[in-house]
Amino acid sequence: MEISADRDGNTFYLNMGPQHPSTHGVLRVILKMNGEYIQEAECVLGYIHRMHEKIGESMFFSQFYAYMSRMDYLSAMAYNHGYTGLIEKMAGIEPPLRAEYIRVITVELNRISSHLVWLGAYLLDLGAFTPIMYAFDDREMILDLLESITGSRLTYSYFRFGGVCKDIDEDFIRGTRAFIKKMRSRLKMYDTLVTKNVIFIGRVKDIGIISQDMARRYGATGPVLRGSGIEYDIRKNEPYSVYPEFDFDIPTGSTGDARDRYLVRVAEIEQSLRIIEQALDRLPDGPYRTEIPPFIELEPGDCYFPVESARGEFGIYLVSNGEKRPYRMKLRTPSFSNLSLFNELTKGYMIADAVSILGSLDLVIPEIDR
Amino acid sequence: MNKNEYYKKYSCYDKESPYHDVCAVDPAVVNLPVVQEIIDLFRANSLWPLTFGLACCAIEMMACGMARFDIARFGAEVFRASPRQSDVMIVAGTVNRKMAPALVRLYEQMPPPKWVIAMGNCAISGGPFNVQDNYNVIEGVDKLIPVDVYVPGCPPRPEGLLEGIFKLQQKLAGKRLWPVAELKE
Amino acid sequence: MSHDALKQAIQTILPEAVKDSSYNETGHHLDITVSSESLVQLVEVLDQKGFYLVDVTAVDLIPEIEVVYHFALWQKLYRIIVRAYIPRNHPEIPTISHIYPGADWHERETFDFFGIKFLNHPELKRLLLPEDADFHPLLKKESLLEKVEAVRSGFRKGGCRITYGD
């Protein structure tokens, strides 16, 4: 795209302030505009900085659970999984097999619900009021299922070191199978309502093209990376838990524009349904938790454990000094690296396209600010 | 109805409150209490909220506006993005030292009469971030602006937010307008 | 490019401390310690081999600060951790944001939390705390000196086990 010459009096600063209608959270973007074209986009963060890393140094290991789900509240199960997996790796705890299967089922259900929220909110930014109603209605079904076993709708603390908190029962399994059948028919409905819509294609095709080299240098992961054609998913490349036993594909795009990222996420919903089906068929019997004493001490050393959340690679780097509290806990969140692309990506686009790019990156601001 | 009862409903007009530097507004010159009571009943049934979702509670607020827990039934039809067009500010989420000036400025920009609902534990008292090493989180939004209704929970269920709206309507209209939900045995 | 070939390539350029690390215990395949002067050279080598930047962070080990970089590969499972030690009362280290632009924000955040100055950074200002804050929150107090010894002596030992506290 060509940026018009900088004539005097045409350059001004526009502030997309911390409070704006698109519900990604509190992000402030200072746009330097020339008419309607953007020359520079500077993101100002820190409006929801809640000191998670500092708090992590003063809490016992089992006390820090509640903070894990407040960071990225839309895929809280994956964050639980990352923290539990890290402590179990460092301490050598083996959870029973039934607990691992239950973990995978709940993580994938949460991934579907996170993608549905993203779908609704993205289309609301682009101006469509109907898909968000349908998406939130489908999401309520998932939330009913998860509420019956975990007790909360949004910020779950369901995993424990050595298993899960409560076992799943027949009602849950029956409800999940009914949900899978219903969701597949709804995906066809989304296809005709959104994917083939001419206005939608005009708003997202060839917008915000991320090249592979750019994604590598910024450290982008998740659907942002897979939309550019790289098949990188922590569940396949660096398998953890019982993921090697399931048979699923990694959807990728070809060009790296916003439309490819949308198609990747919708295809991931279908793959998650496949994983849940296979897990329900093979669910073993047995205990769902091994008893661990409430206070754990880890030997001095450090460890890094990544998992695949709905937005990309979430990793925790823990440094321990032999005490009951961590010495340093660093949380590597995917939206942080995904948002740092934004400045270079929006140069030359119009402001309406900038809103579309910001939505297609799928950001949750509290996990950037931690 | 004398002046004190009139001011109880409108915390934004109260000159002796500790928040008077934030909301030092005079009420209308011509106001008959009898007419105000009828207008308050109308206001209670059409409160328009301001979108001020900051963190996790914002998702529950969105879910409250969607098809299952419809908030449009009770008058909060549209969530206005501009403070100039809204009546209620639902503070949903944690308020920071960096965000506090923006919050106060938005509250000052809302035209009176205006009310505030503090939704979630973080807005009531800092929530889970009210720890000893706290250096950044404001412990409760009522340290900045006057709050009318507190809705606890982390996050509160959408039915909880609806109950908060009902309490605000009760404050305005004088009596509760909707039946209390009963426990089904 | 296999594990030994990569280790060889790094060791010929920089005869620094390059160690194998057990993936099952620490999550990394290779553990490299560099000085601040040879950091940029090492990162250029990693960039040519196709690594992507995962994270830049720091750990406060009184009387020095350890700056930690994580790198990983897409094509196969391979993770590298790079450590650099700088003195605590004079914390300065060169930036890598001209090679990996994603390190721009990571370095700003590390400056925000620890006060480390990254030399030749395009715009080193605070990222998360308010601009007028005058403290760096994640620096440890001097009274915790004893507990630091356990971290520094037990480092890279691996083999964590669980001990039953009360």
Describe this structure in words.
The complex is a heterotrimer of chains A (370), B (185) and C (166). Chain A is of the alpha+beta class and 370 residues long. Chain A has helices at residues 52-56, 65-71, 76-91, 97-126, 130-150, 170-195, 198-204, 212-218, 223-226, 234-237, 258-281, 334-339, 342-345, 351-360, 365-369, and strands spanning 11-16, 28-34, 37-44, 159-160, 163-164, 296-297, 301-309, 312-320, 328-332. In chain A, strands 1-2-3 form a three-stranded antiparallel sheet. The longest helix of chain A is centred in the N-terminal third of the chain and has 30 residues, at 97-126. The radius of gyration of chain A is 21 Å and the shape is globular. With 185 residues, chain B is of the alpha/beta class. Chain B has a single domain, classed as Rossmann fold (3-Layer(aba) Sandwich), CATH 3.40.50. Chain B is built from six helices and four strands; from the N terminus they run H-H-E-H-E-H-E-H-E-H. In chain B, helix 4 links the parallel strand 2 and strand 3 (115-119). In chain B, helix 3 packs across helix 6. Chain B is globular, with a radius of gyration of 17 Å. Chain C has 166 residues and is α/β, with parallel strands linked by helices. Chain C has a single domain (3-151), classed as Beta Polymerase, domain 2. Chain C contains five helices and eight strands, in the order αβαβαββββαβαβ. Chain C has helices spanning 3-13, 23-26, 39-49, 103-114, 145-153; strands at residues 17-20, 30-34, 52-61, 64-72, 79-87, 92-94, 117-119, 163-164. In chain C, the strands form two sheets. In chain C, strands 1-2-5-4-3 form a five-stranded mixed sheet, sandwiched between helices. In chain C, strands 6-7 form a two-stranded parallel sheet. In chain C, strand 6, helix 4 (103-114) and strand 7 (117-119) form a beta-alpha-beta unit. Chain C is globular and about 50 Å long. The chains are: A alpha+beta (370), B alpha/beta (185), C alpha/beta (166). Strand 6 of chain A pairs antiparallel with strand 8 (163-164) of chain C.
Topology:
The complex is a heterotrimer of chains A (370), B (185) and C (166).
Chain A: E1 11-16, E2 28-34, E3 37-44, H1 52-56, H2 65-71, H3 76-91, H4 97-126, H5 130-150, E4 159-160, E5 163-164, H6 170-195, H7 198-204, H8 212-218, H9 223-226, H10 234-237, H11 258-281, E6 296-297, E7 301-309, E8 312-320, E9 328-332, H12 334-339, H13 342-345, H14 351-360, H15 365-369
Antiparallel strand pairs in A: 1-2, 2-3, 4-5, 7-8, 8-9
Helix pairs in contact in A: 2-3, 3-4, 4-5, 4-11, 4-14, 5-6, 6-11
Chain B: H1 3-9, H2 33-44, E1 49-50, H3 56-64, E2 88-92, H4 100-109, E3 115-119, H5 121-125, E4 149-151, H6 158-173
Parallel strand pairs in B: 1-2, 2-3, 3-4
Helix pairs in contact in B: 2-6, 3-6
Chain C: H1 3-13, E1 17-20, H2 23-26, E2 30-34, H3 39-49, E3 52-61, E4 64-72, E5 79-87, E6 92-94, H4 103-114, E7 117-119, H5 145-153, E8 163-164
Parallel strand pairs in C: 2-5, 6-7
Antiparallel strand pairs in C: 1-2, 3-4, 4-5
